[in-house]
Design goal:
This protein has about 675 residues and is of the alpha/beta class. It has 18 helices and 37 strands. Helix 10 (about 280-290) packs parallel to helix 11 (about 310-325), helix 13 (about 360-370) crosses helix 16 (about 530-535) and helix 16 (about 530-535) crosses helix 17. The longest helix is centred in the first third of the chain and has 26 residues, at about 180-205. The protein starts with 6 loop residues before the first strand and ends with a strand.
Length: about 675
């Protein structure tokens, strides 16, 4: 099956009132620009979310001002220029068809077919109405009409919108589902989305088993069975922020499928026609993805008239040509990981809808800042290759997780957990109390709580009571497991006491309650330190975590010196090469824009409640940062390199070998450096 190396994704949602669709379109010039960028895979709209088709359809609604077959021209030109083409169809939205068939629309739990009229999802299609067969027929029409098409991308298949239209209610009743329960109805909507995706995938594979198929919004886990590759939509300046890609990339790379790293050329998000990214920010997104085994994909907008945006092409060409000089080292390289952060996907609302929370993001950020090599995994992954599993804050021991944790411990491996991770589902205490070496006493009511802790776990921490920034639990060691640190009670708890607001609450007295219980295999923090780090970034909590990690993993695959906390470092392997990727870019928060009420709760943002959205700054990268005099140490595992150099210039680097580590002095790098050790 074809594996895209460099991709472009063109958004083309065109209002019906647009009077001159395709009027100025020069297909040869457009595809020529694409070819100049070195692009081998293009996604382009056959039908947009407005329900307008850009080809001569006998089934759907062609845009009223389009006088020719625009998609067909692109298909022909791409075939001549050896550019693989994927046809975009919006599955969840189709406004033109919805106006003709109001009975095809989703009915929400309040009985409405219209949602917020400030966003394109004002009308959402129901996959159980006759629209289901219509969408399948239109997809097959494109496949048969354009045999050169290499794939399909269906958008807006988010399964979390419950529908209680007469068709859905009838089937839910038949299945014994309580259609009045919003969560049960949403779970049924997910089933409906998965079902239509399975049907479409099956029909298309009969035509061409080599199609690249992706159903956006369906959830990543179902894609492993239904689709044929993965797209990671992550627009850091468009709402996702720079915390999302480190988690998503390390999760998706475990599916053993081609993963496209879809970022955007625009400053904000889809619909920002006049926005353009800085070169450094686009470069960082795509290089970061490459180090995680992903392939570049830049989303942009096609002007309905066909006008070519030369500035955007110039930017993409410049960035892609730089990336292409690294292909020898990036293509088919495998990221190295010895730690895994657990992400809970055991829910009926889609694999990430409830899983990515502040704890996961906080743990990932700590590990990135500490330059540790890690994956993000679920209970569905193979855990056997990891030395340490991190269970951040609230991972309960449901059936599948329980079995994985037990097997991991039985293999003599280690776990770092916090707060109520490791609890049985009823929250009465630790599921594996004996193995954990800790006994739950009760929820702690110190607000705020402080702590002190002695070495080794208190190494490099300030000698003072330090804040925990959250509510925790009280626990006690068992079976001789060590208890470390002392929880310190404040003079008073925050809050109104009937007369005063207790706002100033200093540390008052130490207790015998530990903030860490640690044995040979398990270390457990009393408080949700990962959640606290994501929300407030207190460096002492990261240092506390680092000290525990050092005790559990004294010889990590990568060690660094004089590499700033904002820098990132990742290790990959390919044949006889072991490579270290160094990044020095700083996402700076600028501006303050309130997210509108309609802002979609994407998988990357699902942990926000509407109340928590509030004011949000845009994270901007404008230039790369220069780092001097860094030291990088890569564990060799007995494989001695014959040469060490920087890529792509192959400039030799001086190195030493000490205690099974390759030690490289890096006098200076700007933005990105790739160090290669070759046997």
């Amino acid at each position: 099956m074809f594996k895209p190396k460099y991709s472009l994704f063109y958004d083309n949602h065109t209002m019906p009132s647009c009077p001159d669709v395709g009027k100025n379109f020069d297909v040869e010039a457009f595809t020529g620009k694409i070819k100049e960028c070195g692009v081998d895979f293009l996604t382009f709209h056959a039908r947009c979310n407005m329900g307008n088709a850009y080809y001569d359809t006998k089934i759907g609604v062609k845009h009223p001002s389009l006088a020719y077959d625009l998609f067909g021209k692109i298909a022909e030109a791409c075939e001549r220029k050896c550019i693989k083409l994927s046809a975009y169809l919006n599955a969840g939205l189709s406004h033109a068809e919805a106006l003709l068939h109001m009975d095809w629309l989703r009915v929400d739990m309040e009985g409405r077919v219209y949602t917020d009229k400030t966003f394109p999802s004002v009308r959402i299609m129901c996959f159980n109405t006759p629209y289901r067969e219509h969408l399948k027929a239109m997809t097959l029409e494109v496949a048969k009409k354009y045999p050169s098409v290499s794939g399909f991308f269906w958008d807006c298949m988010y399964p979390t919108h419950p529908c209680v239209c007469p068709v859905c209610v009838k089937e839910m009743k038949k299945r014994g589902i309580n259609w009045r329960d919003a969560r049960a109805a949403a779970a049924f909507s997910r089933l409906s989305a998965v079902r239509i995706a399975e049907e479409i995938s099956m029909e298309l594979k009969k035509i061409n088993p080599e199609y690249l198929l992706y159903f956006n919004g369906l959830g990543f886990a179902p894609q492993a069975e239904i689709g044929t590759y993965l797209e990671c939509e992550c627009l850091p300046t468009g709402g996702w922020g720079y915390e999302a890609l480190p988690v998503l990339s390390r999760y998706l790379r475990n599916f053993e499928k081609t993963v496209l790293n879809m970022t955007g050329r625009f400053h904000k998000s889809w619909g920002d026609f006049g926005g353009i990214r800085t070169e450094a920010s686009l470069e960082y997104d795509l290089l970061y993805g490459l180090a995680n085994g992903m392939r570049p994909n830049v989303g942009g907008h096609f002007h309905p008239r066909g006008d070519i945006n030369n500035a955007v092409f110039d930017l993409i060409k410049k960035v892609y040509r730089k990336l292409q000089t690294y292909d020898e080292w990036h293509l088919d390289a495998r990221p190295v990981a010895e730690i895994a952060v657990f992400l809970n996907t055991d829910n009926d609302m889609g694999d990430l809808a409830a899983g990515i929370g502040p704890g996961v993001y906080g743990a990932a950020r700590m590990l990135c800042e500490l330059k540790q090599q890690f994956d993000v995994i679920s209970e569905k992954n193979d855990w056997s290759g990891y030395k340490i599993i991190i269970l951040p804050d609230n991972v309960l021991m449901t059936g599948p997780i329980q079995k994985k944790v037990k097997a991991h411990l039985d293999a003599g491996k280690k776990i770092i957990a916090s707060h109520k991770s490791g609890f049985e589902p009823g929250l009465k205490g630790f599921m594996f109390e004996k193995e954990w070496g800790a006994r739950f006493i009760k929820d702690n009511d110190f607000a705020p709580a402080f702590f002190t802790i002695a070495p080794p776990y208190g190494r490099d921490l300030p000698d003072m009571p330090l804040s925990l920034y959250s509510m925790g639990i009280e626990m006690a060691p068992i079976r001789g497991t060590g208890a470390f640190g002392k929880m310190i009670k404040s003079f008073c708890n925050f809050g109104w006491d009937g007369e005063h607001i207790n706002f100033y609450a200093p540390p008052y007295e130490a207790t015998d309650l530990p903030i860490l219980v640690a044995g040979k295999q398990v270390a457990h923090f009393s408080h949700p330190i990962f959640d606290a780090y994501y929300k407030m970034a207190p460096v002492p909590l990261r240092q506390l975590f680092a000290n525990v990690l050092d005790e559990f993993l004294s010889n990590p695959v990568l060690k660094t010196q004089n590499l700033p906390s904002f820098a990132r470092a990742m290790v990959t392997e390919k044949a006889s090469r072991k490579m270290a990727h160094l990044f020095a870019y700083v996402p700076e928060k600028r501006g303050a824009s309130k997210l509108p009420a309609w802002f979609p709760l994407t998988e990357a943002l699902a942990f926000y409640t509407p109340e928590e959205k509030g004011e949000s700054a845009t994270e901007m990268i404008e230039e790369p940062i220069t780092v001097c005099d860094a030291v990088v140490k890569i564990r060799l595992d007995g494989k001695i390199p014959g040469k060490v150099y920087t890529a792509p210039d192959r400039k030799p680097m001086e190195f030493k070998i000490r205690d099974d580590y390759l030690e490289i002095q890096v006098p200076m790098f700007k933005g990105y450096a790739l160090l290669v050790a070759e046997e």
